[in-house]
Request: fold
Amino acid sequence: MRIWAGGQLPLREFLKRVYHKYDDNTVSDTAATLSYYFVFSLFPFLFFLATLTAYLPLGHSVDTLLERIRPVVPAEAMAVIDEHVRALVSRPRPRLLTVGLLVTLYSASRGVDAVRKGLNLAYDVKESRPFWRTELLAIGATVGGAVLLLFGIAALVAGGDAGFWLARHLGLGSEYLFVWKWLRWPVTAATVTLIAALGYYFLPDVQQRFRYITPGSIGGTLVWLLGTWGFSAYVSHFGTYNVTYGSIGGVIVLMTWLFISGLIFSMGGEINAILEHASSTGKSPGARTEVEAPPPADERPSAMPPGAAASQTAAERSVGSDAAGPH
Reply:
């Protein structure tokens, strides 16, 4: 059996490469790092999102926002999010659109920037874009993601209300409510897939054509929805986080869910890179374009584990300072 990559990659070899990518690139460590950044960026992002919802024609905008994300977040984690978001937006709206909101936006973009670094490692490329460009990219992706989510929420609300009005006049109100209850899941999946596809396209420092449907975006979204459902069921029926961790049990559930989410979408980027590198028309590992020759293997990020480069540089500086000192 062969999978998509120009028909050149047997399934067994693909699975072997996925395992090696997971192990060599320490994807679980990357996911742990992402969960740390996501915890600090999640509430600023939701704060920014809740601020923007106030300018949409939605009644009870914060309630609408929280209700739309509630089905895809474990209940214990949602309780933490609900409490803090309501506390954040309890201040008068004019005070939100200040310098404090810009600081909030920058804090929220740190999670996106961490994803960029993980995707660069998946493609085995060093970041070549200037600092200001990567910062603008992270902030722009954060704003773009917020706007996309808001449009999705507004479309769900407006479409639901308009559809119910029409169905009610046709005498199909109850049938419509049943269909709409299940229709929101494909809409949610399509929105998450689009956000993942845009992230896989814009964030890594490689040139590629935009594809909405990729193994990483489709597979990552489906596995994420299943993983969220499975983790929520586990926490509800078997988890003892509140017993073990006490009052911070909800925070631990939130961090675990963020870790699972980061792991799944990081592996989605790794899988996209594996298939890209295996294709006869794709880029070589370490190359940014199809026509670019990759750098030597010992000059790529995969040549040493994350953090080793900084340690090596520090060691070289230490040796250099010792050599420059008096004898």
In short: The mean pLDDT is 75. The radius of gyration is 23 Å. The longest helix spans residues 131-169. Strands lie at 2-3, 9-10.
